[in-house]
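Supplementary Text 2. Reproducibility record for the structural model of the 164-residue chain.

All settings were left at their defaults, and a single model was retained for analysis rather than an ensemble. We include the record here because the model underlies the residue-level annotations in Supplementary Table 4.
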Amino acid sequence: MRNSSDCILSLEGLLGLVDGRVPLLIEVKSTWSGNHAYEQNIADALGAYKGQVAVMSFDPECVAAFRRAAPSLPRGLISERFEDKHYWPDLSAWQRFAMRHLLTAAFARPHFIAYDIRALPGLAPGIARDVFRLPLLTWTVRSEADRANAKLFADAMIFEGIDP
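Retained model, structure tokens:
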């Protein structure tokens, strides 16, 4: 917050504050630069944590880097339709297609998929869930209609502004 003494916690600070009292689902942002050295630092910090924690990212290379850095750390691949090329300027049409259809899961090897509620039901997340038996989370559930859709097509929901 501007003009405040408040600051964003470091990952270590967050882990100390939570101290295993609730599970953590950490979204790791990407620069889409191909440099994935930071995943090892995150994995190292999470390695000593005693609580339940999982990481997830839109970037399949990031998810693959976590697989190499900490194979037992639960990791998820976040996806959506990727229709807005202006929102995803660093991605080619092919990359957006591959990510929308979860083709990148073949090398990312996630433990779960997190798919946009606005894109459910969908063929790719349905196949991931029903054929490959990957748990399917959906985001961001903000209404009763979203919740009803999530109940039909997902195993769990990431929600905001409603009681689950």
